Amino acid sequence: MLSTEQLYSKFLECTGVSTDTRRITPNCLFVALKGDTFNGNTFAEQALASGARYALVDDPDVADRGVGGRCLLVSDGLLALQALARHHRQTFTFPVVGLTGSNGKTTTKELIAAVLGKNYRTYATVGNLNNHIGVPLTLLAITEQYEIAVVEMGANHQKEIELLCSIAQPTHGLITNVGKAHLEGFGGIDGVRKGKGELYDYLAQHGQTVFINSRDTTLTAMYRERLKTIRSETTFAEAIFYPGEPVHLVQESPVVVYRDTAHDQDVTTHLPGRYNFENMLAALAIGQYFGVSPAEANRAIADYNPTNNRSQVIVKGTNTILLDAYNANPSSMTAAIRQFAATPATKKVVILGDMYELGNESEAEHAALGQLIAGCHFDVVILAGQDMKHALTSLPQAYYIPDKFSLHNWLMDHPMTDTHILVKGSRGMGLESVVPFL
Ligand SMILES: CC(=O)N[C@H]1[C@@H](OP(=O)(O)OP(=O)(O)OC[C@H]2O[C@@H](n3ccc(=O)[nH]c3=O)[C@H](O)[C@@H]2O)O[C@H](CO)[C@@H](O)[C@@H]1O[C@H](C)C(=O)N[C@@H](C)C(=O)N[C@H](CCC(=O)N[C@@H](CCC[C@@H](N)C(=O)O)C(=O)O)C(=O)O
Ligand SMILES: Nc1ncnc2c1ncn2[C@@H]1O[C@H](COP(=O)(O)OP(=O)(O)OP(=O)(O)O)[C@@H](O)[C@H]1O
Ligand SMILES: C[C@@H](N)C(=O)N[C@H](C)C(=O)O
Questions:
Q1: Using CA atoms, how far apart are residues 255 and 270, in angstroms rounded to an integer?
Q2: Is the CATH code 3.40.1190.10 the one for domain 92-303?
Q3: What's this protein's function (predicted)?
Q4: pLDDT (tens digit per residue) in 316-353
Q5: Atom 12, ligand 1: residue with shortest CA distance
Q6: Are strands 122-124 and 148-152 parallel, antiparallel or unpaired?
Q7: pLDDT at 234 over 70
Q8: What's the pLDDT score for residue 233?
Q9: 39 is in an annotated binding site
């Protein structure tokens, strides 16, 4: 069995890390993980044959088969990956900004990276690689050429953020918000608050810096709770409350326009909704803290244009689609629906799919969503998925279509023109597939 130090010296000989033979790059370190479908150990030889320099395995039989001494045996592949990332992180001397939250992590991460990228060689989590596998992979992709890192941390149960903090060891941190997401695994909204609070706990225990949205009463209360419990021999995190500068929302739809009064600038962005303005404020605060000029920060935010099914505004023929189909939960659905309801347009249609991972709160949350939609007076409401039938009680006029295939057919039979259309649902619903039919 290799120690973490021994493993690290092998890692330094490699060009990167891959956990998947479908994505092997020359001279990478292949790490065999066990998943729901496969045992990665069975792919070790294939990884080496495809160009991996070493294969980290936790099956002694696979290691015994040798392959020129290029199989590295550890007791647990996942734990070894995490330990390797933790070790690598300790070699960084630059700031690591860690962020979590129920909603807006990826968008805020992209905005922060765009802003910091104006002054620093910035590494940011690629896509959504934010879990117990993704965070180690993110850390291990960071090289000494960078000057700052932005690491997204996702969770759907307690102690996960604690684990991810032990790997990423953030010097600075941000919780975007605490909302009704992943209620099943967290055990309700109080569980979400506790689970996300593990980031503040880490920053507090290590005397690091925390960025707090002063308008968010939950986040400020979470910070104060930790201030009260801190022991005298430890230093609590430095807290940067934002927004401090006079930046005002001018328009929230179809896209956010804000006014930076201190610098006499109106900034037109590509993102819709007040909630995205909150994400922008976080990026501006972090940029200001790290010395990015307001003009450069505003330009970075104005230029950010999502292509990831999150808050995407797509003009197609005479229709304008707000494609927000990456994920959905009660908080983000409510934010998106309220924002869409406030959008000026002559005809508005919503196509909404199930919200996943709500456990025994699912039925009530879908029903509450129905009541919210009923008060919004949309021209057409289309609901898809098994759970959305609970929203129907308040929406007798809605079209209910249980599966996606039937939804595509329905849309082909009911073409729309001159319409604003909101498309949103959980990842498993994959509602971006409706766009070709609109
Ligand atoms: C383990 C793994 O990485 N699986 C990926 C794999 O899945 P697949 O079903 O094919 O196989 P297995 O998982 O059974 O495979 C075991 C290993 O074998 C490898 N392998 C398989 C076949 C093959 O031909 N060759 C192989 O080498 C395989 O790669 C495994 O190492 O492929 C899928 C398709 O690419 C991947 O989707 C799957 O990735 C899983 C889901 C994963 O966790 N990936 C992380 C790198 C990651 O960060 N993914 C993010 C999504 C993160 C997320 O959902 N975040 C949540 C909050 C966190 C919740 C947390 N508790 C959790 O459960 O994850 C959020 O709300 O944000 C991403 O991909 O975007
Ligand atoms: N500050 C916010 N408050 C509420 N909802 C938000 C906020 N920011 C974004 N959203 C909603 O959440 C959706 C997903 O955004 P984003 O992917 O940035 O969040 P996320 O936290 O990274 O989600 P995930 O972890 O599932 O990737 C957006 O398209 C929007 O509907
Ligand atoms: C895909 C994952 N990050 C996520 O957000 N899951 C929830 C349940 C969703 O898809 O809405």
A1: 6
A2: yes
A3: Involved in cell wall formation. Catalyzes the final step in the synthesis of UDP-N-acetylmuramoyl-pentapeptide, the precursor of murein.
A4: 999 999 999 999 999 999 999 999 999 989 999 999 99
A5: 35
A6: parallel
A7: no
A8: 56
A9: no
**Integer angstrom CA distances of residue 130 from 31, 66, 84, 100, 187:** 17, 33, 17, 9, 20
Which residue is closest in CA terms to ligand 1's atom 35? 20
CATH architecture of 4-76: 3-Layer(aba) Sandwich (3.40)
- Write the CA distances from 75 to 1, 65, 327, 344, 400, integer angstroms: 7, 17, 35, 59, 50
Q: Tell me the whole-structure pTM to 2 decimals.
A: 0.95
pLDDT at 175 over 80: yes
Instruction: Tell how far CA 398 is from the center of its chain.
Output: 31
Q: Which ligand 1 atom lies nearest to the CA of residue 106?
A: 67
**Confidence band for 231, pLDDT divided at 50, 70 and 90:** low
Residue count (the chain): 438
Respond yes or no on whether the N-terminal peptide bond of residue 254 is cis (omega within 30° of 0): yes
Q: Does domain 312-437 have CATH number 3.90.190.20?
A: yes
Domain layout of the chain by residue ranges: 4-76, 92-303, 312-437
- Catalogue the E-assigned strands of 221-310: 238-242, 247-251, 257-260, 265-268
DSSP letter (8 states) at residue 347:
-
Q: Which atom of ligand 2 is nearest to the CA of 179?
A: 4
Residue entry with tokens 């303005």: 277
339 lines ligand 2 (CB under 6 A): no
Contact 125 CB / ligand 2 (< 6 Å): no
Residue 213 C-alpha to ligand 2 middle, in angstroms?
Answer: 16
- What pLDDT digit, counting tens, does each position of 359-371 carry? 999 999 999 999 9
